[in-house]
Amino acid sequence: MSTPQEGNRYAPPAAHVDDVREPADSFELADRGTRFGAAIIDFLVMMLAIWVVSLVTPWHPFNATLSFVSFGTNAALGFALFVLINGFLLVQRGQTVGKSITKVRIVLPDGSPVPAGRMIGLRYGVGYVVASLPFIGGLYGLVDALMIFGQDRRCLHDRIAGTIVIKA
After folding, report:
1. Band of pLDDT at residue 66, cut at 50, 70 and 90
2. Residue 104 contacts residue 35 (beta carbons within 8 Å)
3. Tally of structural domains, the chain
């Protein structure tokens, strides 16, 4: 069998790239339990913040009589509150409050920081939008969470944004 250099025009391209590192080469991925703990902490922080905001403003997201419009409004206000609480940490250190406490952080696969738009828009924004859709949101959340059990420990939102979570 000939190699591409010998003129086999149907051979796949062969290139060696030195500047691209795989996560396993230099980083220790965060384990599933730690990521789950960080998610629980983030959930509790958000619920506390939403409750406090609902006490001091007319916004009442826990109202049992929600319409489709108020569902979307709640999702938008909830995302804005999430960014208000975690935005600085996410952009500066690749961490939410929960990730900071559990000592893990979000990075690109080469170890570099995640750009702000990619972090807020792709990693979190897409999930908030899809999760706010009736029926589809629940399925998205289930698939997103179950993907952590893959060998590379990446959830769907990690794959969408092209990120990994490593020990800090």
Report:
1. low
2. yes
3. 1
